[in-house]
């Protein structure tokens, strides 16, 4: 049985191995600790659950708990919810993502730019497994109004968007996606280095 002491004694480099060794009966406890006020306990639980999600579907049954977190007043909880939903999209045999996507994509308009970034970045774990949703995902991220985001974050968020569009493009593309990429590479927000980085992905 996992305890907080055991949880906190796991070294960062050992998380992957530790996640495989966790008893399945300990997963509900880790999910519960995601709501802990203590940052360290909450974060360590998240990392273990993310690692476990990469190799097995034992975290998937808690989907509805993660979905509720998308609407939390706490930005950390919203981030936890979106990351664990994305991590478990590959195990989504019940197609819960179809029903959850609108709530997930609502976080593209979050008040916290860091949550917006995490929301976009985590799409990397959804896109390959939910190809029928890729057009909707592409339209949503292309619909983000970059000019509404504080200036210091604009380049980073635009890069995040372009990276996801590059992944979507491997499966399917549209004129809108091509035009968006062309416009971003011709525009002023990205510097030369960033443009080269995106071009190498395409």
Structure description:
This protein has 202 residues and is an all-alpha fold. The chain has 2 domains: 1-58, no CATH class; 63-201, Leucine-rich Repeat Variant. Helices cover 64% and strands 0% of the residues. The protein has 12 helices and no strands. α2 crosses α4 (39-55). The longest helix has 21 residues, at 151-171. It is globular, with a radius of gyration of 18 Å. It starts with a helix and ends with a helix. The relative contact order is 0.08.
CATH topology of the largest domain: Leucine-rich Repeat Variant
Mean pLDDT: 95
How many β strands by DSSP? Answer: 0
What is the makeup of the main sheet?
A: none
Concise account of the structure shown:
The protein is mainly alpha-helical and 202 residues long. The protein has 12 helices and no strands.
Descriptors:
202 residues, mainly alpha, Leucine-rich Repeat Variant, 2 domains, globular
What's the layout of helices and strands?
Blueprint: H1 4-9, H2 15-21, H3 27-33, H4 39-55, H5 63-69, H6 75-87, H7 96-105, H8 113-122, H9 134-142, H10 151-171, H11 175-186, H12 192-201
Helix pairs in contact: 2-4, 3-4, 4-6, 5-6, 6-8, 8-10, 9-10
